[in-house]
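Can anyone check this?
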Amino acid sequence: MALVNAAGALPGPSVQLRIEQIAAGGAGVGRAPDGRVVFVHRTAPGDLVEVEVVEERKRWARGRLLRVLQPGAHRRPPPCPFYERCGGCTLEHLVYQAQLAAKRRMAADALERIGGLVLPQSIPMTGSPHEFNYRNRVSFRLRRLGRTVVAGFHQLERPAHVLDVDQRCLLPERPVADAWGELRVSWGPGAQLLPAGASLRLTLRSSLAGQVALLVEGGQGRGQPEELLRRVPAIAALWRSEGRGAPPVLAVGVEELDETWGDEQVALNGDVFLQVNRTAAALLEAQVLALARTEAGMRVVDAYCGVGLHARRLARAGAVVTGLEVDGPAVRQAAAAAPPGATFLEGRVEDLLPRALPAQLVILNPPRTGVHGAALEALLQQPPDRIIYISCDPATLARDLSRLASGFAVQSLHCFDLFPQTSHVETVAELACSTT
């Protein structure tokens, strides 16, 4: 079905739209003359734009921005030199306060539409202290195309293509950006010092002190890691993983980077998980601690606990905490640093949670896919007094809150921006048991 204009005739090669809002994923939303929604990246609320329709469905279409006829009030020139074609960011053309407003609306839309929640007029939103240069961990894709090497991020709306991106990218912390620049000029013709293969994933991460580690995933063989580190002194360690799911192995360099994370010490090795935005994460973690309202002897389960930051802090405040985590190295690190009152179990949350209950408080911090159905059922069967759910995806949060609605009521919601310039938003939800 083709788009039609107000007179019912087929449009020309382009159509004009007034952009109303930003959708999940970062595209602007306007309406075609026939009433269908059209999604267009790089547009801002209030923009009058001319777009080329590149994909059509019965109820919606996707367009490519041709030009901005009248800019909206919150549009700005994007400061990154790669933004026009790069898929790493989606909202950089919006002033930061408009980004926060868009993300708050994305979260609210998902919670209302998928979760069936009746929300207060506005969900609180806490922005990042740093709009740029905030990522302590960045993953780049390297492609070998004959004798040419391209390394950077996937292109906007062309995920099969990689856009070459150097150290001018505005997302990484300065040590990561500097190391990336040195690495690009030092890996040799055809990136010969890296493992062979058409495609590699390169992840750089930095500690608070500025030490940098490199994880190389995919490809074949070792490459020449010793020579690479000799040429790039900014990199203190190189880890290697040859396939999806294969555990990282230290190839050369220091076994771990000493990381200071607020009041905790963490050993960075392999692919151990920490939030990428340390200053914004500190604000989120403070919110979780405030919501926990820890009392001496309170029983807490910290599910999907990683290296156990929440569990450690709550145990030091007097709680008895059981941390659940599937990643073995993270569990071992959490156990090694555990204060009295904190214990950690290795395994899938859905398998461990039934025997970790009952508890007065359960903290859920799942991956983007959300909480496994069996874990949700365990919470309904042995309901804690309260749940604190930390979500990185409003859609899966809304789904899970809907599944818990028979036993829990939402008490509060708070959004945090841990990923400025992108459409990602974190949400902290507090739930109270409604069946006791």
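Reply from J.R.: I decoded it. DSSP finds nine helices and 22 strands in the chain.
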